[in-house]
Amino acid sequence: MKEIKAYVHANRVAAVIQALKESEAFGGDDGACRHNLTAYVVKGSLLALDSSERHYSMVLGEEVINEYKLEMLCEDAHVDALVAVIRQAAHTGSRQAGWIYVVDIASAVRID
Questions:
Q1: Which residues contact 69 (CB under 8 A, 6 or more apart)?
Q2: Is 89 helix (H, G, I), strand (E, B) or coil?
C-alpha cells in the first residue's frame, strides 16, 4: 500500500479532484471509491502563477502562496495511474507547478 501526497496550485485543485474521481484507478471497475482522498489548504512556496496568489507571511517572514496538499492511500497497482492523472490535471505550464510524493505504508487498519 502507498500514500500519494500532492502539492498543487489552488486554481487546479478542483480539476485534480474531479479527474481523480473520474479515473478508473480511483473508483475501480465497480465504481466504488477505494481511496481515502483528503485535501488541506497549506501555505507553500510554489511559484506564484500571478501576483494575486502572492502573500507575505509575517510568521514565516517570506512570500508564500495558498496551495493544496492532497493525500490518498492506494494499492501499489494504482500508483502510476493516479500519479499520471494528478500530473495531467495539475499542469499549469509553470516550471514549478507542484510536487507529487509516493510513500510506502507499513500498515493500515480500518476503523469499523
A1: 5, 6, 7, 39, 40, 42
A2: helix
As a whole number, mean pLDDT of residues 60-79 equals 82
Using an 8 Å Cβ cutoff, are 80 and 2 in contact? no
Highest-scoring range by mean pLDDT, 13-22, 32-41, 64-73 = 13-22
DSSP string, 48-88: PSSGGG-EEETTTTEEEEEEEEEEEEE-GGGHHHHHHHHHH
3-state secondary structure of 39: strand
> What is the pTM for the complete model shown?
0.78
Residue 70 vs residue 61, higher pLDDT: 70
Burial of residue 88 (CB within 10 Å: 0-12, 13-18, 19+) is exposed
Do the Cβ atoms of 83 and 21 come closer than 8 Å?
A: no
Among 53, 73, 58, CA closest to 2: 73
